[in-house]
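Blinded run. Sample ID left blank on purpose so nobody reads anything into the name before looking at the predicted structure. Input follows.
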Amino acid sequence: MTAEDSTFAVLGVLGDDVRRRLYRHVAAAPGEVGRDAAAEAVGISRSLAAFHLDKLVEAGLLTVSFRRLSGRTGPGAGRPAKVYRRAEGEHAVSVPPRSYDAVGRLLAEVVENAGLDRELQAAAKAAGAAHPDAAADDLIEVLRARGYQPFWDGETLRLHNCPFRALAEDFPALVCGMNLALLEGLAPEQWSPTMDPCPGGCCVALSKNKNH
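Blinded prediction complete.
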């Protein structure tokens, strides 16, 4: 089986509506998700949730570990429960095959070597401000639609997913600076994006200005 065939097989697992909803719930969660919580979130039985969650694990889309959800230890604490979280890595396919990643890395390398960080940030901020979703009332929905998977951490809005992860790993200063500028342009004026990395997630966090 070729790499492309393997990717088709993995993404084919998400053809089932229940699995898609389970994957979205677990992938967007900032921590591990148990079977009961996943079942309740998508409105299905625990046994059905367990079946589909394990299928997602087999496909490499989720990872599994075990811990006691009650927080108790010692005799009588019960057996550790299966908990799930989004697996690392990416799965993408295009028909016919394209190689946008290679072009993206080449362009990023040229921009970085030429010292055009500020020009890139200015362009990113302008692009964010010009986007139809800019200044939208519901920033959380805007970020969710763009793949950031936002969640509240106290009064801070953190981003569980970095849409530019592959490039950010190779060009962190360049891409993270671009991302911050993009979100500065996209966010309404009552929001303040700052560089505040989320473990395993995006480098930017947002908070509301105190006068709002």
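Unblinding after everyone has recorded impressions. The domain at 3-86 is CATH 1.10.10.10 (Arc Repressor Mutant, subunit A).
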